[in-house]
Task: structure prediction
Amino acid sequence: MNHARTRSRSGGWLGLYSWLVFAFLYLPIVVLILYSFNGSGVGGFPPRDLTLSWYRMLFHDAAIWNSVLNSLIVAMVAVGLALAIGIPAALALDRADFPGKAIFRRLVLLPLILPGIITGLSLLMLCVFSGLQLSLVTIALGHGTALIAVATTEIFAGLQKFDRRQEEASLDLGANYWQTFWRITLPNLRLSIIGAALLIFTLSMDEIAVSFFLVGRENTLPLEIWSRLRRGMTPEINAVSTIIFVFSLFTIIIWYRIRTRGEAQQLATPIIQGEIA
Amino acid sequence: MYSRAYKSAVTLPPVAWVTLFLLCAYVILFAHSFWSVRDGQIVRDFTLGNYKQIASSPLYLQVLFRSMKIAGAVTLFALLLGYPVAYYLSFNSRHKNLLFQLVIVPLWVSYLVRAYAWKTILGSDGVLNTSLQFLHFTHEPVSALLYSPFAVVLTLTHIYTPFAFLPIFAALEHIPRNLIEASHDLGGTPLQTFWRVILPLSLPGVVAGATFAFVLSLGDFLAPILVGGPSGIMISNIVVSLFGAAYDWPLGAAISLCMLILVVGLLFATERLEKRFSYQ
Amino acid sequence: MNASLLRIREIRKRFGTREVLRGISLEVAEGELLTVLGESGSGKTTLLRLIAGFEQADSGEILMSGERIDELPSYKRPVNTVFQQYALFPHMNVKENVAYGLRVTGVASSEATQRADQALAQVKMTEFASSSPTKLSGGQQQRVALARALVNRPKLLLLDEPLSALDANLRRQMQSELKSLQREVGISFVFVTHDQDEAMALSDRIALLRDGLLEQIASPSEIYNRPATAYCAAFIGKTNLVRAEVKAGQVSAGALRWRAAQQDGLVLFSIRPESIRVAGGAAQNGYVRFVARITQQMFQGPTRVVSLECGDGTRLEARLRGDTELATQSEFEFDAADAVAVKETA
Result:
């Protein structure tokens, strides 16, 4: 009984500290949400005049909506690009040996590890060097290229859980590599692909460091917010931020559900197939 | 099992794309650092002038050191905040899944949103100042809260703590629980067990988390602009201005390359460190 | 039996809604090797963990040399454990692993080194002192785990299925090494296993656990020859379970009849296959004779297992020596004293 008591005592202090850290992590967000309803804008404490006027203003703000649309387009292109390159890359890393494989793996990961400014600048100089004009296209290219590693990592992990013998069976039964890929491999990777897509989409929607250098005439949402922040603070920003927060929250819950459901499914499949896990 | 054609088909497109868009991009950055600017035009003659300028200019070195100090402080605080939370989640918590998601959510919320939130809080008219005055702790706004290195450290700590938390949590989760029972069985108190067993085995995660936090903080240019003010300028801000108003791409490229080498060197060193400390 | 070292009184433990231990009481004598035997789910590992201090019982007491230890945290108990997967610390070398318990309890560095060296010599692992545990084979890790536990001179050593991860040959070798080690060191060992052959080979006594209850605790020969329950009889070795009616000392089970000092009623008897032999010569006093048809024979070297069917349908298995040809229908016999009445548990 002593043992149990000591445990909860130390657990108590640690727990308290942890909850304080949680508070620290969420405090700014809570403040933001609160103030998005604040009638007198960003200053003053405590907040008064609860109002939805900022949200209403936001609703009529054409520039914001425009940038949201741009962001959506860019994000979807980025997802497509990252998956189109990332899936073969994962397959190559899993199944092929080629000179420079180790370098390739690191190179692909670099944009995720390096500060965004370095990748952004490099891509900017590449565009200028090759005469490519800066626009949403260049932003989408930048996002897609930088986020290949996300796709590759998720798909590669999915491949490890995948039973290769299914592909052998398919080939044995007469299907060629392409058919096997479409009918067997890809469906099995469904969850990894969805998880990767969700992650890439979210990262692209929020991306600013690389976009900063590749932007042309049209702004993405983060760039639009940024330019307004540079000019001065408007409470509209709070409203936009709150909405972004709610969306992100939503997205991560979905992503997590997919992830955990995927693991549960993977545990169940061998039992269905008659083996014992 | 996989034919040469198959392997070529899956290997060539990604390698080609990555070489073209990633490798070439970094190479062009490398090349630019050896060029110079004259009369508003980039001159593509090889020169070491940029590097000489960096090495001899007190301004750049000063800002670089300040950036490293800020990054170092952020790393320290991120570890101090992240490790105990990771420990609590891994060993004490009953609602591990839920709390894990709670830590991850801020990661997914826009960087801009979070940095802006701190700007709101720390400003002269912001929450912190007005509530301090409201509670009569101060009589006028403390202007040093915002637009200072302190604000940058605070904001970046807030943003990168979850980054530090993740690898530490993963490392702690990987520790087989029977090792802890073995330590107790042999007479080790919980404190001794932490110091002699848990901490050493979690070091690879700590190293990874610290690297993340340091590298990303070092290269950050957004938070300094939002909350840093003139005294909070970091090395990346100088680069940004060189690509903007103070038009000198080669110099900016040179500074970026220095940053790149520093970062890659750090990553290399920590990777070897992680390998040395990893026992699986 | 020697003096009692460990006394377990009415231990109950529940996990969620499942009651894993339902009131276990037993004693471990000084210097004995006691095996706790049972199937998975019987509670044997939980019992071990309760003694070690990794779990707390819901009710009951654990006393060592008369003093309660169940309220002490595991790091204060004079008990050490050899874990199932050895649980060696991967970030320390073999010698550091072995010396760990001495270090954390404040033993002087020089003494700790000396004792660690002695312990390593005892398990014949001296040459591996600076190796990393991750580079050792299963058997070698086993020995290091033993040394690490024994170096602390515990009053009691707990072993949690330590041989289950080893292959058959290595297992047999380690079994005999463990037995001689225990004799040499002289302290009590409590050994958990699901392998009844292992239990019978090693133990001074066996405690058979089933569904959280103690079925029987006795020496291997006693458990084998005088099983208390049907479960004991069937779990350890093979047996024939025969249901019989007893009236006024007369036992009748179909074609089988004999006299036994039993109370009236329905009784279950356990008859070991090796007790049955081919009937020859005159009928001896106290022997039960019956005629049966041979349905199957399985040759097993020095003996063969013969499946019998009596006229009334009773099926028995007999283990016979020799390989003389038998007629399809033969007469068999067994000593009535070899029919042991066993309790039937639910």
